[in-house]
Design brief:
195 residues; Rossmann fold; 7 helices; 22% strand
C-alpha cells in the first residue's frame, strides 16, 4: 500500500515578516489570548503551555500582507529566564498579567527586565487580562505601565474584550519598529558584535 505524502507549500515554512512575543507568568491567559485572536473562539482549560508554541498568522495592514509569527511560552516559574533565542529577532512584545492574581503583576518587573536585556528597543504593550472576572479593575491605574511608559490594554479572552485590538496594535507597533531607520537591523548587528 502506497502512503500518501503530504505536500508542503514553500511559503508554509518561510521566514516571517514579523515576530511578536508574549511574556508573563503561567496561567495569565497568553495562549487563550492568541487562540481568541486567531480563532475568535474560547475553550476553558487549565493545562499550561509547555516550552514554546509558535503560531503563524497572515495579517493585512495598510494594503500589505504580513506573515507574523506569534511566540508563546509557558511562563512557568521553573523557567527563571528564557533562552536568548526566544527573544532573537522579535519586533514587538505583549506582556501579560492576570488581574485576579497579584503575583503575576509583581513578576512583570522580572519579565520586562529580561525582555529589555535581550530586546532593548522593541515596543512593548501591557495586557491586564481576565477583566471579565473583575470588571472594576478597568478603573485602576497601574503604576508599572506608567513608570515604564507602556500602553495598557484591559482584555478578556473569555468574552473577547479588546483582544483583536491589542494584536492589531502590536502588529502596527512591530511594523513601525521594523521600518524605522536603524531599527531591528542595528539591534541585531550590535548583538552580533557584542556576542
Amino acid at each position: 500500500m502506497k502512503r500518501k505524502v503530504r505536500e508542503y507549500d514553500e511559503n508554509e515554512f518561510s521566514k516571517a515578516d514579523l515576530k511578536i512575543i508574549l511574556l508573563g507568568d503561567s496561567a495569565v491567559g497568553k495562549s487563550k489570548l492568541v487562540e481568541r485572536f486567531l480563532l475568535d473562539d474560547y475553550e476553558e482549560r487549565q493545562q499550561s503551555t509547555y516550552a514554546l508554541t509558535m503560531y503563524r498568522h497572515n495579517a493585512k495592514f495598510e494594503g500589505k500582507t504580513y506573515k507574523i509569527d506569534l511566540w508563546d511560552t509557558a511562563g512557568q516559574e521553573c523557567f527563571q529566564t528564557l533562552h536568548a533565542s526566544y527573544y532573537y529577532g522579535a519586533h514587538a512584545c505583549i506582556l501579560c498579567f492576570d488581574v485576579t492574581r497579584k503575583i503575576t503583576y509583581t513578576n512583570l518587573k522580572k519579565w520586562y527586565e529580561e525582555m529589555r536585556q535581550n530586546c532593548p528597543t522593541i515596543p512593548c504593550l501591557l495586557v491586564a487580562n481576565k477583566i471579565d472576572l473583575d470588571p472594576s479593575v478597568t478603573e485602576t491605574k497601574f503604576k508599572f505601565a506608567e513608570s515604564n511608559n507602556l500602553p495598557i490594554y484591559y482584555t478578556s479572552s473569555a468574552d473577547g474584550t479588546n483582544v483583536v485590538k491589542v494584536f492589531q496594535e502590536a502588529l502596527k507597533a512591530a511594523i513601525e519598529h521594523k521600518q524605522k531607520p536603524g531599527g531591528q537591523f542595528m539591534d541585531d548587528l550590535m548583538d552580533y558584535l557584542q556576542g
